[in-house]
Amino acid sequence: MAPVEIGLLLVEEVEEGGECTDKERRGKGYEYELEEKERFWSELDEVMESIPMGERVVIGADFNGHVGEGNTGDEVVMGTFGVKERNLEGQMVVDFAKRMDMAVVNTYFQKREEHRVTYKSGGRRTQVDYILCRRGNLKEISDCKVVVGESVARQHRMVVCRMTLMVCKKKRSKIEIEKKTKWWKLKKEECCEEFRQKLRQALGGQVVLPDDWETTAEVIREKGAGCAIWKEERR
To answer: What residue ranges are annotated as transmembrane (predicted)?
Structure first.
């Protein structure tokens, strides 16, 4: 097996919608918004459940939630290097990770806050874009961070992840060798003479061939194997 290093890039494009306070969110439309989010997680659950456990899964998305710093009670699915406090949407991310036995990759790598903040708008600095993988594959990831100065989508910053996979080299199937007779070489005198001598030896010095054709044919095939009229061909 040979290690192959791959890079994962998370880019999220969103529409600017301005800021809203917690009080505003608790007003008109909040219940509908919550239903939409619950529907999203339900559908994502269905997708994950349709994937065989043996297959590697990496999810990168703007989950619009804060998983927060620390991991008390959630050590199985996340590290301690989040940003700020957890909110309801962040709890949904953590709950999903627990249901699907996944890990929130961003939180396992100690970085300066500048390399953890994925969203900047005005005075707001937070972490809402996450990369998740199966917990069993977490050991394959050696780094995850925000690239400072790179912003290919409005307000959201680029998140990169370094993952090393062990790739099994496919074994070549064994090549079968088939022997074929080059009867046309009997046109050459040296080949013809060699074959004639071997055939006579096999027949005990007789010049006349046996009446039994099957016996004669078998003798011809056996003795011809040591002559130049035989060759090996790859199939």
So the answer is: none
